[in-house]
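Exercise 7. Predict the joint structure of the components listed below.
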Amino acid sequence: MTIVDRPLPDRLQYKPEKIELDESVKKAKAALLNDIKRSVYIYRCDLGGCNGCEIEIFATITPVFDAERFGIKNTPSPRHADILVYTGAVTRPMRVPALRAYHGAPDPKLVISYGACGCTGGIFHDNYCVWGGTDRILPVDVYIPGCPPTPAQTIYGFAMALGLLGQKLHHKDIVEDGSVKAQLRFADVPYKVRTTLEREARLYSGYRIGQDLSDEFMEALERDGSVFANINDLIAAQSDSRKAEVFRKLRGDLEDMVVTPEQQEAQLKKGLERVVPHGDQPDATTQAILRGAGVQ
Amino acid sequence: MFKPIKEMMRVGNATTKYPFAPLERPEGARGKPEHDSANCIACAACAVACPPNAIQMVVDPKGGTIMWFINYGRCIFCGRCEEVCPTKCIKLSREFELAVMDKNDLEETCTYPLQKCSQCGKYFASAKEVAYAGDILEQQAENDEEAKRARELLSVCPTCKQKADAYRAKRRVDTVGDPTPDPTPEQMDEARKQADKNKAERRKEARF
Ligand code: SF4
Ligand code: SF4
Ligand code: SF4
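Solution:
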């Protein structure tokens, strides 16, 4: 019997208790969230992230993004903080320091879960030594996803907490009944040609740009008129020589795939010869096909 | 004294206007993975590729549905999903304003029907995925007959296909006899000698 078959019984598992707010604190907090007019001080608490989030927080207070123009100031002590920013997936040893910082800050205070780690555990969510997110132990007010969140994402999160901007993302449940059909991309381009071109383009310039370039190339293929004339037009229209080079290479790959009528006939003959092994007498139907293809 | 002021005037203000004005993000900036549910075939390639399991699939074999689920709060914006998606229906957008007050708002689901096997009647794959595979085979088919046959074969679940193969093999053994009888000791010796010879030849070739 494996360990997977027998999970650890619940009584042997420690589950962190989440702090619940009482009514008066909740009310004070709602009032604070409603009209926070003064400058807010933030205290940043790293609960075992990779430090990427910290770097982005400091990028946020540089002159380019300048979080201090909203009165947001970084403070070195939770005693002065209005907002606690927690980064990292909450490792087991960091639970108690997290709680100390939380209790150290005066009520009402806001808690921000910062980064994918803070929101849900992120890339470390199934690690053995993490609780997987700030909200496992603390009541969280704002979640700022991102790994790490860019300074703009951070500013958005703070602006939302301070009521400057509204929330954009909302929960969505879509249920399809089977009437919608997925579209085949570039249905007019033969499947093998499409996959070969996509693969080659990805080899030339990576999956993202390569995909965009092969899409552009295939749009040119689907256009009316001569295929190679369209492609030459596409190449001529490029101002970026790197793009033109990739298109030229793709044109070469396409030329390799083009089969002339003579080649096609030769291939057919070869294929049919393979169908009928030496020494066997082909049946009447095969004989007819062979005659049609010029094989005696 | 005027020099620093002059310098300041020359350099100007470097601070972005955001959040009071929209922020222009450069092309290729990684933001929210945008999912086009109409073109998704629920193939689960993205769920397999997603490093932090931000995308997951939940199959309900009784209800006959498969659910695509994403948690933007866990996404690390690596772009693996868009790399593997066969229909290119998931793509990282430049959208970055993802912060929420309620964790539930970070989640999104899309539910798709499953396909029933035409033989045993059990659900076995996403219906849209089967239809999509049919479209691709139809695109490659030489004639209508072949396309129809491909679609028929696609609507059979792997278990039924295996069973059909097994029955066919059994029928063949019953009528024609064992297709691959055990080799005799002489045949074994012969094969072993041939293999040694091949090996020696390969060695010889490798030396040059
Ligand atoms: S969210 Fe990403 S960047 Fe931030 S601490 Fe976690 S792993 Fe590092
Ligand atoms: S970008 Fe990466 S982490 Fe985000 S959903 Fe796609 S595969 Fe998952
Ligand atoms: S890989 Fe694309 S088509 Fe497949 S389930 Fe994911 S989003 Fe849908």
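Discussion. The beta strands of chain A are 41-46, 73-74, 83-87, 110-114, 142-144, 172-175.
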